[in-house]
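thread from #wetlab-drylab

HS: before we spend reagent money on co-crystallization trials with tryptophan, can we at least see a predicted complex? here's what I'd submit
DV: go for it
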Amino acid sequence: MSEQVSSRGTWSGRLGFILAAAGSAVGLGNLWKFPYITYENGGGAFVLVYLGAIVLVGLPVMMAEILLGRRAERNPVGAFRVLSQGKAGARLWPGVGMLGVISGFVILSYYSVVAGWTVRYIGLAVSGRLETLAAHPKELEAFFREFLSSGTQQVLFHTLFMGATVGIVILGVQKGIERATKVLMPLLFVILLVLVGYSVTTPGFGEAIAFLFRPNFGQLTRGAVLEALGHSFFTLSLGMGAMLTYGSYMRRDNSILKASAVITFLDTLIAIMACIVMFSVIKSFDFEVTKSAVILFTTLPTVFIQLPGGSLVSALFYLLVAFAALTSTISLLEVVSSFAIDELGWGRRRASLTMGAAIWVFGVLSAVSLGANETLSGINLIGRSSTEGVFGTLDYLASNWFLPVGGFFIALFAGWSLGRRESQETLEEGHGPMAVYSFWRFLVRFVAPLAIGAIIVSVILGVEYN
Ligand code: TRP
């Protein structure tokens, strides 16, 4: 067993795991997606449902995933196979892992396109052009719309980002993933702190806080509840085996409970900070948000030009967002590659290159569905502006359906198929006697599956979107 561990690689220590997993969690989900879906869904009540989902479903499911990974020391498909041996449904459980690998494939394909936008913005800021454009919000919006509908540019930046992701995954667990995260995560946090400090001084700060934290349940639709649940999975990288895969490299002298709590806390904090900054700007400058999906790229630059050294601040900021996205894309590709390495017997290099290329091809469909190709841009399953095109459709399906369904089965497996003795043993490794063990078991056995199931069923029975 130990032979196998060393050839797969492990994190260098306690900090290595936490940083890499937090790097996976913190990404465009926090900085790009959370602010805009919160805005679309009217703030307060949506945020409250989201926070509830994080604590009651997200945190216990994260512990379940890491536990399964560390016990099996394998990719999601292999983990379900070895852990279900001799148990009910042993033939079916690996399918949950497979759903995860497919979700990783799909998510990475369009995620890399948005990540590419951040690369474009670094260049824009460095050249000083962002500052000029941001002085007239209308011009910046027009610029961005044109950028989205240029197929060539979308494919170009998508390509750059997939290239960087593949490069790092080839280097492997310690050298590539850990090293990048160690410096960049803390730096992102610092720059966000500075921006929050600035927003406190803007006139719209109070209104932004009220929007975020004063719930109005009248506005909450079933669709919004599902979206809050789906996003709690997306933002914590749950429901598809990414945390399971990272957990498979986690050392046994590390507490799963503590690591999960830290990661969840940091991720939530950063999402809320991003909202405070962006909503303060929107409320202060009477900003007209025509398309909320691009707040990060059209609203935020207007703050930067108010700050001393605006071009520099924005260049640094988009650089850090790009890195936050990179530590997330790495984890997505790592799931798909570790599947090919363990299950198909490929080498790391071949796995990352082949899977990366396939994902890139699939991602081109999303890249040209933002205006460049009319047919692909026109698809819309449920008729909301954020579900437009191949891009919007994949994001909707993956985060609202694939991840919660994956999370449902992960919770069921950890709560019901795995015996009390098995789960307790792994959770207490590196932790000692765990006072909240029974509470965790209650959450994964009952609360998480019932909550996910009830939300999904209510949406299937009566979808009501506004
Ligand atoms: N959590 C990341 C974000 O918020 C995205 C991400 C990375 C992800 N790995 C994942 C989402 C695995 C779902 C599953 O940006």
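DV: Residues 3-460 form a domain with the Amino acid/polyamine transporter I fold (CATH 1.20.1740).
HS: ok that's useful, forwarding to the group
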